[in-house]
Amino acid sequence: MSTPIEGFITQMPKVELHVHLEGSVRPETLIQLATKYNVALPAKNLDELKDWYTFKDFDHFIEVYMAISGCFRHADDIELIAREFLIGQAAQNIKYSEVTFTPYSQFVNSGLGFHEQMDAVNRARLWAEKELGVQMAVIVDIPRLISSEEGDIIADWLIERYGDGMLIAMGLGGPEKGHPPIKFKSAFDKVRKAGIPCILHAGETQGPESIWQALEVADSQRIGHGVRAIEDPKLIAHLREKQIPLEVCPTSNICLKVYPSIAEHCLPQLLKEGLYITINSDDPPMFNTTLTNEFLQLEKHFGWDSELLEKLTLNAIRASLLTDSRKQEMLTSFQSEFARLRSQYLG
Q: Which among 260, 262, 312, 254 has a CA at the least distance from the CA of 286?
């Protein structure tokens, strides 16, 4: 039986700002798609696939990611994984998600056009709003391993489609080492000129310089991960002064060996320093986690109370790219629900 605080965490309303659509694909779905398209996978059955799917190191992570992308051959496949993702979010009471998606990988691997992919995601989004009562928006990201010229193509795609109610920002993901944000300055300049915000991954496998550059080159509105900021007091002071949100993904950080364990994670120090923190799951099946599990683990290791859990959740609402009116509406709703759950579970 769960404890009262575990029940509270499970039922509390949530918002997630750092989660990858491709990284949310279930092993069962990957087998289904691979079988459908006769794609060879390095596993003979679901148990073997789950073992292969589980994170081992960053190179293996990229291998799995590319295998997943290679199994998307039709727009219906994109809609399928988006629907399944949103079903999983709804099951955790995640009311709103800002989801990172990498359409260029599917374009290269399977020839799926950008608008074709976005239409598929949008169908899933509208279905989930109606049937599940959850919402999502999409951050289109540049994979760092491509060329700067290809990054410009993605920027052009985003500019063409921006304002459709679903696409909200440009991101940057993939291996930080050897692929700094400056590599894609032209793309960031393009989208910023068009009034589109940038939200970059930085400061996970590389140190503070990666974060500084994300801020200087792209004026990143939030920092995906950002935990390595703890190594630079000047950066900590800057992030605190500007209250630039960090999208912290604790289990992901452990899997990537940024920290040895949750207990040794810098998150308590980041909070002590007065930084703006949100909690996220990153690539849930690959890291064997969920957003609910992230909160459960953090409460278990750090003894967080319901007030801090609520604060971090409301942080995510305020750090989102929702309109001010929608943020206020959601804040009011969440605060009421937190009060009800606190009374129900914690007396």
A: 254
16: left (phi over 0), alpha (psi -120 to 50) or beta: beta
Could you give phi then psi for residue 287, rounded to 5 degrees?
-105, 10
pLDDT, tens only, 45-98: 778 777 777 767 767 777 777 777 778 889 999 999 999 999 999 999 999 999
Helices (H) and strands (E) in the chain, counts: 16, 8
Active site residues: 204
Q: Is 224 left (phi over 0), alpha (psi -120 to 50) or beta?
A: beta
Calculate the CA 285 to chain-centre distance: 13
The secondary element (H helix, E strand) that includes residue 112 is none
Find out whether 245 and 222 touch, Cβ atoms under 8 Å: yes
Global pTM reads 0.95
Q: Which residues are 167's β-sheet partners?
A: 138
Instruction: Report the distance separating Cα 152 and Cα 118, nearest Å.
Output: 18
The pLDDT tens digits for 8-55 are 999 999 999 999 999 899 888 988 888 888 887 777 677 877 777 776
Give CA torsion, residues 56, 75, 108, 210, to 10 deg.
-50
Domain boundaries, the chain: 24-93+111-137
Name the amino acid, one letter, at 118.
Answer: M
Q: CA angle at residue 297 from 290 to 246, to 5 degrees?
A: 70
What are the structure tokens assigned to 290, written together? Answer: 């969920």
